[in-house]
DNA sequence: AAGCCGTGGCT
DNA sequence: TAGCCAAGGCT
């Protein structure tokens, strides 16, 4: 009653899944939500210690909502993309105010939370609550591109198409569907790698259209290249944020001036951080919100 | 809707 | 080395 590909990947997953905190029995829905925020564009290995510290300090959305957003940003430390900390704090406030402190279960309510998009909403509904939805992340998209479409890399993301592709593979059974959502991601994360896929170890190499076609090189449109970090506005923002996190008193404009020589770029970065709500100007300097 | 948003590890 | 990449989302 299940797609052969899903059946085989699930069997592999049951034997080979990594033991990750959010897969432990009884891990809370809040814990799943926090983990998904942290995992956005950030590798699993870097997330784990941050996640454990975070949940020890704020075991529920209400606990996080009770402290200033700046505390969340400081605890976020070097995880990167500090807006995620701000948004997670905002989401905790929304959960506390609108949902009685309980992480919502339906995708629509989850999507209304700040910082929660198509992936994260479905990941929470499926992995925290066990409901049946397609969950598609970058790993799943790559697995489907190769195994189903015979392409070396996925086409640019398209939610309707990606979710439809996944839906076509998903069992009617909630548990099998949930397992496959996790298993497709896991396969992409540890076997069907972007750079050097380990096809020799792949449980579905015999079903893979890309392998059957001789693993042809990707010929589609190139992904837009990430701009160089060194010397970028993001770099300057990162320097300023590190200074704000380290300080327990306001950081003066003069201290910020010392962080970067180019005044125009520095001003742009600082103004951007203020506009984003990551920095707040006071009479004596800048502080976390 | 393309560009922007941190940080660090890997090749 | 320098680029590529990592459980995305927002504007």
TrEMBL record:
Catalytically driven reaction(s): Hydrolyzes free adenine bases from 7,8-dihydro-8-oxoguanine:adenine mismatched double-stranded DNA, leaving an apurinic site
Enzyme Commission number(s) of this protein: 3.2.2.31
Domain of life, per lineage: Bacteria
Protein keywords: 4Fe-4S, DNA damage, DNA repair, Glycosidase, Hydrolase, Iron, Iron-sulfur, Metal-binding
Necessary cofactors: [4Fe-4S] cluster
UniProt-listed CDD domains: ENDO3c
Keyword Zinc-finger in record: no
PROSITE patterns the UniProt entry points to: ENDONUCLEASE_III_1
HhH-GPD domain location: 38-190
Sequence similarity: Belongs to the Nth/MutY family.
Name listed for the protein in its UniProt record: Adenine DNA glycosylase
Native source species: Paramicrobacterium chengjingii
């Amino acid at each position: 009653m299940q797609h052969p590909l899903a059946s085989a990947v699930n069997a592999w997953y049951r034997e080979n899944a990594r033991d990750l905190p959010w897969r432990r029995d009884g891990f809370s829905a809040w814990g799943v939500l926090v983990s998904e925020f942290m995992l956005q564009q950030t590798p699993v290995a870097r997330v784990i210690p941050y996640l454990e510290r975070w949940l020890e300090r704020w075991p529920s959305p209400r606990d996080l909502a009770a402290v200033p957003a700046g505390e969340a940003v400081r605890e976020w430390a070097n995880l990167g993309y500090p807006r995620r900390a701000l948004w997670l704090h905002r989401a905790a406030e929304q959960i506390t105010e609108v949902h009685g402190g309980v992480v919502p279960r339906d995708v629509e309510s989850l999507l209304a939370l700040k910082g929660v998009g198509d992936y994260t909403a479905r990941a929470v509904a499926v992995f925290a609550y066990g409901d049946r939805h397609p969950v598609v992340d970058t790993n799943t998209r790559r697995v489907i591109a190769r195994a189903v479409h015979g392409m070396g890399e996925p086409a640019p993301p398209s939610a309707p198409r990606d979710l439809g592709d996944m839906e076509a593979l998903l069992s009617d059974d909630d548990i099998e569907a949930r397992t496959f959502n996790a298993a497709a991601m896991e396969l992409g994360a540890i076997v069907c790698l972007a750079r050097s896929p380990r096809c020799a170890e792949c449980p579905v190499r015999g079903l893979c259209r890309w392998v059957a076609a001789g693993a042809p090189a990707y010929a589609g449109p190139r992904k837009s290249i990430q701009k160089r970090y060194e010397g970028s506005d993001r770099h300057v923002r990162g320097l300023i944020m590190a200074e704000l996190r380290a300080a327990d008193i306001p950081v003066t404009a003069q201290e910020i001036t010392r962080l970067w020589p180019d005044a125009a770029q520095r001003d742009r970065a600082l103004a951007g951080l203020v506009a984003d709500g990551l920095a707040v100007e006071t009479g004596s300097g800048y502080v976390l919100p």
